[in-house]
């Protein structure tokens, strides 16, 4: 099956020329692919992540349009440093992508350690709210996209509490969209299994079997997420808010019989 080329951008005007976007958790994987797409379409991006060396490598790949600030997504001082950097370097903020997420446990939801559950909610849900509030306070002008998951759309055995947190992100997206309209649009995407280090345990060693669950007969690539996110951020989606777009290779249309 064809796999998207992350460097292939539709011809025409650069949709993000003159815009500035903050993308959390973007030194690699889906976050980096989103940054790469926005830069390819003329935008400037600010990357975040915990590891300075990984961020430096990502900025080197993206060039002068990218800068980075290292820190933990659930740290208020880190968020303040990011938006201070945005104000000093760019003087404007157009878009926010809440990509950071964690899933430190695997197993039945009834067995999850309470402290692990709280940490998942803190990073995946509360930090998403906090980043959005901080961005609005910093003068966010246009749009937010939250990275949810198909795990938040139904039962997700093995990663159940992660799914619960992503269901909360999906509902949070609707609440924020309602409250921030009409000035700021807020949407989400819900990817299925994407070939990243984060999801490796879900496919490594059995990729063909994992791929068989999808009508499009392959797992997702990071570029499969970056394109829809770019669309939702852009003015091409100017009359779309409060929505969650599944990116699942057709898994949601599998017949029951």
UniProtKB/TrEMBL annotation:
Q: What's the short name of a Pfam family annotated to this entry? A: adh_short_C2
Coiled-coil residue spans:
none
- Known InterPro entries for this protein? NAD(P)-bd_dom_sf, Sc_DH/Rdtase_CS, SDR_fam
- Gene3D superfamilies named in the record: NAD(P)-binding Rossmann-like Domain
Read off the PANTHER family from this record.
Answer: DEHYDROGENASE/REDUCTASE (SDR FAMILY) MEMBER 4, DEHYDROGENASE_REDUCTASE 4
UniProt family annotation: Belongs to the short-chain dehydrogenases/reductases (SDR) family.
Please state what the protein is called: 3-oxoacyl-ACP reductase
Species source reads Microbacterium terricola
């Amino acid at each position: 099956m064809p796999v998207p080329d992350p460097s292939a951008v539709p011809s025409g005007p650069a949709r993000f020329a003159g815009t500035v976007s903050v993308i959390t958790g973007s030194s690699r994987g889906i976050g980096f692919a989103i940054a790469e797409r926005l830069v390819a379409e003329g935008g400037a991006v600010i990357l975040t992540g915990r590891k300075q060396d990984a961020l430096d490598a990502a900025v080197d790949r993206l060039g002068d349009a990218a800068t980075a600030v290292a820190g933990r997504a659930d740290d208020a001082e880190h968020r303040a440093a990011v938006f201070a950097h945005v104000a000093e370097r760019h003087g404007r903020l157009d878009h926010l992508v809440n990509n950071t997420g964690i899933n430190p446990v695997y197993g039945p939801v009834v067995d999850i350690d309470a402290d692990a559950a709280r940490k998942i909610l803190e990073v995946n849900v509360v930090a998403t709210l906090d980043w959005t509030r901080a961005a609005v306070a910093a003068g966010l002008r246009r749009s937010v996209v939250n990275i949810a998951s198909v795990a938040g759309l139904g039962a997700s055995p093995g990663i159940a509490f992660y799914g619960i947190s992503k269901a909360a992100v999906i509902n949070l997206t609707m609440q924020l969209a309602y409250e921030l309209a009409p000035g700021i649009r807020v949407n989400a995407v819900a990817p299925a299994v994407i070939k990243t280090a984060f999801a490796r345990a879900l496919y490594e060693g059995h990729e063909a079997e994992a791929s068989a669950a999808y009508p499009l007969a392959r797992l997702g690539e990071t570029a499969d997420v970056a394109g829809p996110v770019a669309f939702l951020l852009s003015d091409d989606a100017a009359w779309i808010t409060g929505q969650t777009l599944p990116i699942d290779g057709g898994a949601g249309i599998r017949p029951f019989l």
